[in-house]
What does this fold into?
Amino acid sequence: MAGIRPVTMERRHKSCYTAFMSRIAVVDDEKSIREIIRIALEKEGHKIDEYADGLAAWQKFQKELPDLIILDIIMPRMDGLELCRKTRSLSGGEKTPIIFLSSKDDEIDRVLGLETGGDDYVCKPFSLRELTARVHAALRRIEAEAADTPAGADRDGGKMLIYGDLTIDEERCRIFWKQTAIDVTVTELRIMASIASRPGVIKTREQIMAAAFPDDKYPNDRAADSHIKRLRRKFTGADPSFAQLEAIYGLGYRWRGPAEEHS
It folds into this structure.
C-alpha cells in the first residue's frame, strides 16, 4: 500500500501508552492512508476522525479540538501548514500535539512543518510501529500535563523553577520571561527546562530531544533546531533584546549564564 512501509505490529495493551481513550484527527487526502492509520489506532482504543482535506478539518476544529492531530502537508482546499497555523490560533490549540505526515521528505519541508507549529514529523513511506509510538508518546505528555505532573518532572520537589528572569511553571505548563507570559507547548517547556537548568552548559540536540520526548523510542534530534527557533521567536516577541538561547556551532545550545550575559 502506497505510503506505508510494511511492518509486523507488536500486540500491546493500550494502557502501556496512555490511560485514557483519545480522539485523534487524521487529515490526509489519501483514503488508504487514513484507513490504515484509523485501523491501527482504533485497535489501541482510540476514537479516530478522518478528514480528506484541511478545510473540512478546520471547520470541525473550530467547534471542538481533538486530543491529537496527524496531518498531511499537501492537500486540496487548505494545506497542512495553513491548518496547523490556524489550529495554533485557537483556544487550546497551542498545546494540541500535531504530527506532520507527508511524502515531502526534503529537509526544508521538515523545517517548515516544525516551524509552523508541528511537534513532530514522520515521512512517507512510514512504519506504523513508529507512527503509533510517536502518537502514544505525545498522548502520554498530554496525560501527564492533565495530571499536573509532567513525565520526567521531579515529583518530590517544587515545580516552579526560577533562573534569573526566567520562570518555568511545570504544573501549569507556563513560562514567564521578565514577568511576561510566554505561551508554550509541553515540548517547548521541557526544552527550556532542560537547557536553562544548567546555565552555560552546552546541551546537544540529542540531549534536548531526549528531554522533550522522554518516552519516545524514535527521537528526532534534527527537530531541535526548529523547536529552538520557535522558542526564540516567542521570546523576542515579548522582549526584542532576548539573547539567552545561544547556538554553539557543531555542538548544540546553551542558556547564557551571568558571565556570558555581560561578556
Residues 4-146 form a domain with the Rossmann fold fold (CATH 3.40.50.2300). The chain has nine helices and 14 strands. The first helix runs from residue 31 to 42. The chain has a mean pLDDT of 79.
